[in-house]
Here is the input.
Amino acid sequence: MSDAEPGGVLRSTGRVPDPRSRVFEASRPVRLGDADQRGRLRLDALARHLQDVATDDSADSGMSEEPVFWVVRRAAMTIERWPRYLERITYSTFCTGAGPRWAERRTSGRGSAGGRLETAVLWAALDAASGRPAQLSERFHRVWGAGAGARPVSARLLHPAPPPHAEGRPWAIRSTDLDVLGHVNNAAYWEAVEDELNRRLPDRVPVATECEHRLPMDLGYQVRVVSEVDEGSLRLWLVSDGGVHASVMVATEPAG
Here is the structure.
């Protein structure tokens, strides 16, 4: 699918880095706490890998010295073959586009036993002092501008609202879900997705998925998981009285 397809389950993730781009590599093993009952790397564990590799890239480049926090606005993943328990994954990450206050990071994962996946994550920059959106700095453009400059990226969110007839159930926010910003970390959202997949499509595995983050979630919020299934695809929303916090689309295939 193309990046601009409205409401698509997945925007294109298979993009080759510009030859001038900074490409950073790091590896992570699939540990016991990263795998599901079948030994598959879970979506929430993959999200943690992606944010850790992004953080390592920022630290290596010197960008971590900037007074900016990066938060996920949108994340898309496609999986050709899921990495499995104890498999070591080598991640290659690079910038493929930017807007005034956000940037897109693509990451390719290659497992030692044949795992293969592609991801595209849109990160929004926030000023560390005020929490307000921050302009991308000159240092950002020096480090990643070669890959980002030629391709503008939109931060517009496209997923539809939850239908009134969709099923819903409470989703408890735990203190361990919070990160240093005091909000629910993006990886914790994927725990809700994995749990709902196990409930509603227990004999299938995700192969393409996209999450749009709309409103932050905090401890004490009364959140519900709302979902619907259509021919092996799952649509999910995390909602409260304040609105839709996140929406997720998942394409699946039978578990092999």
User: Anything to note?
Assistant: The longest helix spans residues 43-61.
